[in-house]
Amino acid sequence: MKHIGTDQKVVTTDEFDREPTPAELDAIACEMPAIQAEVELLDAQIIALDRTPNEVDARRIRRAQRRVLVARRTLANTTTGTAEVSA
Questions:
Q1: Which residues of 1-36 are buried (b: 16+ CB within 10 A; e: fewer)?
Q2: Residue 38 exposed, middle or buried by CB count within 10 Å (0-12, 13-18, 19+)
Q3: d(CA 49, CA 57)
Q4: At what angle do helices 55-77 and 22-50 cross, to 10 degrees?
Q5: What percent of the chain has pLDDT over 90?
């Protein structure tokens, strides 16, 4: 009986089996405030699910939602060197 493992080709290519490039790491760093704000919102929502929501929980969720919106707005308004268009 022949073992098929020796006849198989590599399934994954080098494209998927690599570390992030510096440009990708920079993009992640730029998006980190929005990611953190979304995590804080999720935390606030989970806390409200664990018990009967009260006014403090509602305020915590509203503040977290505002932080998400501010972070997304800031990210959307951030221009990169390649995306700038002169008027």
A1: eeeeeeeeeeeeeeeeeeeeeeeeeeeeeeeebbee
A2: middle
A3: 10
A4: 160
A5: 59
Task: Write the pLDDT tens digit of every residue in 6-43.
Answer: 555 655 555 666 788 899 999 999 999 999 999 999 99
The token pair at 73 is 């707005």
Residues 6+ positions from 41 with CB-CB distance below 8 Å: 61, 64, 65, 67, 68
At 79 the pLDDT is: 63
CA distance 73 to 60: 20
Q: Tell me the backbone φ, ψ of residue 47, rounded to 5 degrees.
A: -60, -40
